[in-house]
Amino acid sequence: MTADSVTTAAPTPARHRPSVMDVARLARVSVGTVSNVLNRPERVSPRTRSRVESAIAELEFVPSESARQLRAGRARSVGAIVLDVGNPFFTALTRGVEDRIGADGLALLVSSSDDDPERENRALQLYEQHGVRGVLVTPASAERADLHALRARGTTVVLMDVDGEDELPSVSVDDVLGASLPVAHLLELGHRRIALFNGPLTIHQCADRLAGARLAVVNAGLDPDEVLVEMPLPSLNAEHGTLAAERLLALPESTRPTAIFCVNDLVALGALSTLVRAGVPVPDGVAVVGYDDVPWAAMLVVPLTTVRQPTHEIGWTAADLLLRLDGEDAVGPTRVRFAPELVVRRSSDPGA
Amino acid sequence: MTADSVTTAAPTPARHRPSVMDVARLARVSVGTVSNVLNRPERVSPRTRSRVESAIAELEFVPSESARQLRAGRARSVGAIVLDVGNPFFTALTRGVEDRIGADGLALLVSSSDDDPERENRALQLYEQHGVRGVLVTPASAERADLHALRARGTTVVLMDVDGEDELPSVSVDDVLGASLPVAHLLELGHRRIALFNGPLTIHQCADRLAGARLAVVNAGLDPDEVLVEMPLPSLNAEHGTLAAERLLALPESTRPTAIFCVNDLVALGALSTLVRAGVPVPDGVAVVGYDDVPWAAMLVVPLTTVRQPTHEIGWTAADLLLRLDGEDAVGPTRVRFAPELVVRRSSDPGA
DNA sequence: TAGGCTGCGTGAAACGATTCATTGAGTGTG
DNA sequence: CACACTCAATGAATCGTTTCACGCAGCCTA
Predict the structure, then answer these.
(1) Would you call B269 and A105 a contact, using CB atoms and an 8 Å cutoff?
(2) Residue B142, pLDDT above cutoff 90
(3) Does the residue A12 lie in any domain?
(4) How far apart are CA B296 and CA A269, in angstroms?
(5) Among chain B residues, CA nearest to A105
(6) Is 50 exceeded by the pLDDT of residue B332?
(7) What sequence ranges are listed for the domain HTH lacI-type (chains A, B) (predicted)?
(8) Is any atom of strand D within 7 angstroms of residue A61's beta carbon?
């Protein structure tokens, strides 16, 4: 095949895309009728309808969404802004949103804010211009001024993975509970010194999980300051899990924690691998608990005890809430909070 | 806060969203001038411009993308259809697409086809109606009739992760090379019986990787039928990696492969964990190699040798290609193929 | 048979931005 | 002083739908 033949293979040169008028002409009806066939087929007699339908097929007519939207006022799309689509948590969230949105034949606009209010705002503006039906946001900045302004201008906003402290609707997970479950579990197993591989408390999830851990200790009638050993990590990845585990192993036997609660599974993986490589038996030497229940958590050499969050469901529910709010028949709760679930595996329980 | 006060807090009731006309009126200019301020500010005198700009600010004017698009003919958005946004590979791909698309201020429409031609086609129709500038697709079906039809109707189409056997532009990875690299590596280390934990050959990646494995053996002057032991898996997850590893361990010592090449890292994880738990030393007893280089591959108890694919770059490049093709100044290659890279770690090389 | 329905279809008026031929004011030149 | 020329700004036409007030048969009922 020569370069020429490739050129010739190019799509039909500048043929005008057919409009309702072209269809109407071919089917010998008015444009209104074509529109009716498209949107309220029951109002058109079968004869006429089939004539219009074959005209549509013959011309390969594709309705223009922008024209429809211009007239109808509302778009058939929804925007979602997450911290990072590359992160498994948000990935599952997005998939949940997509599943709900797609059921209504709506399109999903996605972008990542990278936790940068600047980027978040750019995406918000873009989506507002596109006239989306609403926006699902995992907010980057603590101050929600942009979001409130957007809402005031008429766009529905639903927060995800954050509890709407203000009056914005939201769908979130109870991180306090999510941390108290595994810590209670460790206490029950007899652990009395528990390390917390936590992240910076400016991240609200980290702050909530610290609170949850303390709560569990208090509920057990113990003193959190004695039981919990906070070991903050600058960044929540496996490397820092490794480093923190090494620091932990360097502690004298007498004061060394016998269990580690990690703020996520990646950190737990780093910690776990370090312990195993150092010859420390898990869970008998040191128990390890993670958070998130990533797909590979159950498959590690020592299967990982962890906390499962209903990520897909959060996304689905947030989208559902958005559509409900948009539907004017706004009934039902506007602030949903899911309970996470403890998944016990060998890394904490020798019997599992 | 009572339910009543919540109701009262609702956004301004049905206030009309301002249009260019409102802005023009307030700024005492014509609509054309407002449009110029928006799109070609340099053509407007500074005095007038600032008057218009403050009117825009005062009214909180947000231009309607659908009106713009209706007139301009082309949308400021791009569609992407992948097999599953929940899959890390596609997740990274999507992020690459987003990064390229976002740089041009375009919006990204995303959906998952779940490898279902039906769903894929629905998404294609939706995006065509939205008038997207082009569509990036990881095709579900082998037959590309819909895609060709779409292209013929004027929408730019770029395939991802698939080599454009037909004349459609594409961005892909060389899977044959991707499999031959690790197999050559294993042969070099002295392995003469290598198990292939592969998936169904109907998946083109699996077929290509089998071909690549055989190629490497042939290149080493050996007989593929003697060296390679194909152990097909019905599904590419960690559980089946575990099962296959158990089958492998059940083979008599004399014929048992000394190395496993897995079609992805999840399968490799299943295999690795099973070996370690069975007390088989890795890599000295059995070496393991994966594919994908997922974020946790380096952090396992035995860090995993694997093949890294430039996923982010594939997405970025595909989006870049799309925009170039759309730009009419269509120069440069329309079929890009990336080379994967072998990442050697301890699971194959004791010295690593 | 008049009057009132019902069911189908009609076609013009939006929707809100962009474009472009045109007007008008101001400036420099012969 | 008339003329050409530039730079700003104008405003009507346009994009492709949806909507809605009407018209027109045909049919039933009184």
Answers:
(1) no
(2) no
(3) no
(4) 8
(5) B126
(6) yes
(7) 18-72
(8) yes
